[in-house]
């Protein structure tokens, strides 16, 4: 007995160590004879990296080799299993979470200086008194100007711990000296609901740009606002929405579907099925819904459209969606990086998978948009390829198809005028935003007494401003730019960008949507035309 007591700690220690070792080797698919064997494929990869690190003639960054290796492995899987490097994790996490801790300004670097485009409404900078046009010169004594300062460095200096304070030195036009502001950092939302406003007396409009953790809360607030304004119908705009969290899509669908209606189900490689049903919490079950989709509506957007279409709820308007029916899970790789690995497929309530094929490789998969464009599918619904073997029927008797996106109930062709590639490029690259900022700098106070609604309804952009934008581009681009064919469209882009910088909160969308043919179609459907 004394012998047992004496050596009991040693025995327990050995047992625990063995348990840790076995746990590290254990896999649910391992058979007993493999528990203590090595995995030759894994060993081969580890040995190669070790040889390169210790014996190769030149110094090599083995981290970069590992990154290339991981990407090479994932390239042999589906197009949506992706690697997220350590340096990108914070940005990706913030985008999916829907917020970050900062001072609450939108800015761009103008002549080597941080120029505030707009202080976010009710954010810490707005409360401190910072406004559009201000230049942030210093933060806690550190300079924030100069041609060598990168946006990533600027953001790092302006972000910080929640409730921490940062002392800013600000140049404001017309002020003889630099102004000093102490700003208390707080949680700043990255909006996923761009706009929520009324299109007609009964038809409300909500634009969702992605499905982040905060999206349902934003959506619910927009829905309640529109209901209070008299909305009995909702146009849910999911165009250009690449997706996001599946659970958030389910919550939004739940607002429209009656209790116990199937939203979707998922199936993994082992055949395990998980079903999701609507609950009693839906607040718009009796209202009409129109879902706007296009060729860039993917994943969670397609879950929403497919669930409503398969339950004969509402009307899907637009063009065939992207065709992503795979579900990813983010998995930590232990060094700050992660992999988003496809773990299951999802199916709409009728049982269809809307995932398009990817057997011909990633390039062919991502180039499918150009195939749709070339065969005329974006202009003519008769050119949409359907597979009769993937035909399904909804409870109401409507025919729907699987195998490559959601085909809308009402087709709307691509608008060549508002989808002009040159204008879209100029908007994405910030030319409209930078030009408008400089225009405001010349006389920002001219807009001080124009209410938001009055600006949206009655303000007109002058021809002189269009010509000034044309000259602005010609000084900054190699080609000669003219807007003879798109004069009115350029006016609309300029006005929308002005509204965004002056008012924010969906003002851009309210103006940009005024000549949107898909929204016009939804209004006609709502009015029974």
Automatic annotation (TrEMBL):
The chain crosses the membrane at residues 7-26. Residues 89-159 form the PDZ domain. This is S41 family peptidase. It comes from Flaviramulus multivorans. Keywords: Hydrolase, Membrane, Protease, Serine protease, Transmembrane, Transmembrane helix. The keyword ATP-binding does not apply. Belongs to the peptidase S41A family. CDD domains: cpPDZ_CPP-like (cd06782), Peptidase_S41_CPP (cd07560). InterPro entries: ClpP/crotonase-like_dom_sf, PDZ, PDZ_sf, Peptidase_S41A, Tail-specific_protease. Pfam families: PDZ_2 (PF13180), Peptidase_S41 (PF03572). The keyword Membrane applies. PROSITE patterns: PDZ. PANTHER family: CARBOXY-TERMINAL PROCESSING PROTEASE CTPA, TAIL-SPECIFIC PROTEASE. It comes from the Bacteria.
